[in-house]
Amino acid sequence: MTLSRPHPSPRAAAFGVLLLLLGAVCTAAELTGSSLDSWVVPACLATGSLAAVALVTRLTTGLRGRSGRPWRALVVAGALLASGQLVAGFRGVTADRSTGGIEDLAMLSAAPVALAGALWLMPTRAGRRIGSRALLDGSILTASLALLGHIALGGVLPAGGAAADELLATAYPLVAVALCGIGLLPVTAVAESRRRAATWMLVTFLGMAVVAVSGAVGRATGAPLPLLLADLVWLGTLATAARGAATDPGEPAGPPEHHTLPLRGGLTALASAGVLLAVLTGAAALGRSVSTAEAVGGLVVVGLMSVRTLLWALDAHRLTRRLQNAERRFRSLVHSGDAVTLVLDAAGRVTWASGAVAAQLGWRADELAGRGLAALLHVASRAVLARLVAAVRSGSAVELPVTFRLGARSGAWHDVEVLGAAPDREAGSLVLHLRDVTERSTTQRELERLAYTDFLTGLPNRARLMAALDDAISRAPAGARSCLLLLDLDGFKSVNDVAGHDAGDALLREVAAHLSGAARERDLVARLGGDEFALVVDSGPEEALALAERLVRGLDRTHRFPAGASGPGGAPAVGPPLHVSASIGVAEIGRHGDASATMREADLALRTAKADGKNGVRACGQALVEETGRRSRLARDLPQALERGELRVVYQPVASLDERRVLGLEALARWDHPELGAVSPEEFVALAEEDGLIVPLQRWVIRTATAEHARLIAGGRDLRLGVNISALHVQARCLVEDVTTALEAAGLPADRLILELTESVFTDDADLLRSTLAELSDLGCIVSLDDFGRGASSLTQLARLPVDVLKMDRGFVTGLESDPRRAALVAGVVDLGRTLGMDVVAEGVETPAQLAVLRSLGCRLLQGWLIGRPVPAAELAAAVDGFDAGVLDVPAGLPGNAPGGATVSHATHDTVHLAGRLG
Question: How far from 705 is each of 627, 666, 695, 844, 863, CA to CA, in Å?
Answer without folding.
Answer: 32, 9, 15, 22, 18
